[in-house]
Amino acid sequence: MEFYRWRPHPWHGLEVGPKPPEIVNAYLELTPFDSMKYEVDKKTGYLRIDRPQSGSSLPPCSYGFIPQTYAADRVAKLSETGDKGDGDPLDICLISEMPINRAEVIVRARVLGGFCMIDDGAVDDKIIAVLDNDKIWGEARDIKDLPAGLMERLQHYFSTYKLDSFQQSPVKLEEPYGAKKAQEVILASMKDYEEHFPR
């Protein structure tokens, strides 16, 4: 039986997924219950506190990233308005029927779509996926299979989660896209990763 003798770095040591770009691994950093914004420390691979959530809303779903992905030039070229990648792994929002109440877990996710967030000119795509074997959402294949209200909630969260008091949000959201474009973004991020972190 194959196994890791030591804990791998979640960004660099875990596999991108069993069938990318359709089915990927998601490493979860946040749950819908977190009032703190946690983020993987790029050097150690452990979760650290990035900041308290600025507003009163909590994440509408579990949230993390796809291992061995990177937002650089190829990802930026797929955006309508951004001019560079944000230099982070590709973010993923995971929808499931049952709430996942802890972070630092790996889940198999089926990609449905996403939207591009522009943060200070940097492209920061949010891939939207469902738990692959979910009893309620497992049959979904595209973003259009999700309720409009859920998409509105996701977009509202990301358009406001960096607000400081009543200042204007520093981020802008492009129009949501479906599974085909999301898969293109994932493949581009995998190529960006290979270029910046060659084996």
Helix count, per DSSP? 3
Average pLDDT metric: 92
Radius of gyration: 16 Å
Question: What CATH architecture label applies?
Answer: Alpha-Beta Complex
- Give the total of beta strands: 9
Tag the structure with descriptive keywords.
199 residues; alpha+beta; Inorganic Pyrophosphatase; five-stranded mixed beta barrel; two-stranded antiparallel ribbon; 29% strand
Please give the structural blueprint.
Elements: E1 23-30, E2 36-40, E3 47-52, E4 62-65, H1 73-77, E5 84-85, E6 91-95, E7 106-119, E8 122-131, H2 148-160, E9 171-173, H3 179-196
Parallel strand pairs: 5-8, 6-8
Antiparallel strand pairs: 1-4, 1-7, 2-3, 4-6, 7-8, 7-9
How would you explain this protein's 3D organization?
This protein has helices spanning 73-77, 148-160, 179-196, and strands at residues 23-30, 36-40, 47-52, 62-65, 84-85, 91-95, 106-119, 122-131, 171-173. With 199 residues, the protein is an alpha+beta fold. The chain has a single domain (23-196), classed as Inorganic Pyrophosphatase, CATH 3.90.80.10. A 5-stranded mixed barrel has the order 1-4-6-8-7. Strands 2-3 form a two-stranded antiparallel ribbon. Strand 2 and strand 3 (47-52) form a beta hairpin.
Short description:
It contains three helices and nine strands; from the N terminus they run ββββαββββαβα. By secondary structure, it is an alpha+beta fold. Strand 2 and strand 3 form a beta hairpin.
